[in-house]
Amino acid sequence: MTGTLLDVRGVRKVYEGHGRSVEAIRDLTFTVAKGEMVCVVGPSGAGKTTLLKCIAGLLAPTSGEVVLEGEAVAGPPPGMAVVFQEYGRSLFPWMTVRGNVELPLKQKKLPRARRVELLHQALDAVGLGDVHGAYPWQLSGGMQQRVAIARAIAYEPRILLMDEPFAAVDAQTRADLEDLVRSLWQGLGVTTLFVTHDIDEAVYLGQRVLVLSAAPTLVLDDVTVDLPAERDQLSTRSSARFAELRGHLFAQIQRAKTYHPPDPPHPPGGN
Ligand SMILES: Nc1ncnc2c1ncn2[C@@H]1O[C@H](COP(=O)(O)OP(=O)(O)OP(=O)(O)O)[C@@H](O)[C@H]1O
After folding, report:
1. For the whole model, what pTM was predicted?
2. End-to-end CA separation in angstroms for the chain
3. Which of 16, 17, 159, 201 keeps 20 to 30 A from 151, CA to CA?
4. Tell me, what's the ipTM?
């Protein structure tokens, strides 16, 4: 793990419209190193999705900036993949699994042979090597989310952003998908920022966990997850250190819900 890949500097986001303004994010500053797996937790409405959209270049911050490998993000940057919670809306229903996974590779203008190679590797990696020709609506929710993950990794992103990707699947599927994400991360070394509202999931997956306060949002805590790199659903989750970390994060989230940051400094001469 070397060097900073993502640098989020003083990002503030105020939504304006219909005569009211909502300050979703007050001031977020943190970095993610190349190859790191960082989870982000925070109370509902803390601005987690807003943060990811700013990082993905889908929303412009009101102030501050997002820098990816030394370049300021001013629109969706090349080499970034996003997996959303709503798998049902993120895959094109009229395209087969193969068509969905290949689409960004075609946009990248990769030659056919390389596309086919990446397609096979990615579908095998998520355990869906035999469903190329199926349509998303013929698959279960967990399988559709695997296709979305396959599409993201086939693209060979510099950074993978995941926004509560497992919130809508059942508990057993969720555990399987968590293990899939960890093994893909360990195998491919792709830098990952994983947003979740689930503290246990954050501790299980992450090397670090950022705790956001309620809106207007700040980073309240940055916790190193000093669990062994080899994790499994039973022994890791029942270890004493896991319980300590989750207890600490739980207390921080409780604090986050009622935390009121100081008002931002007014610009000189402003009201
Ligand atoms: N397009 C928008 N226009 C106006 N306000 C918005 C918009 N999108 C989000 N907000 C507001 O910004 C705040 C943060 O929303 P956001 O969805 O980023 O939070 P979140 O932490 O992802 O929430 P959750 O955990 O419930 O998914 C909320 O108060 C929300 O109502």
Report:
1. 0.91
2. 46
3. 201
4. 0.95
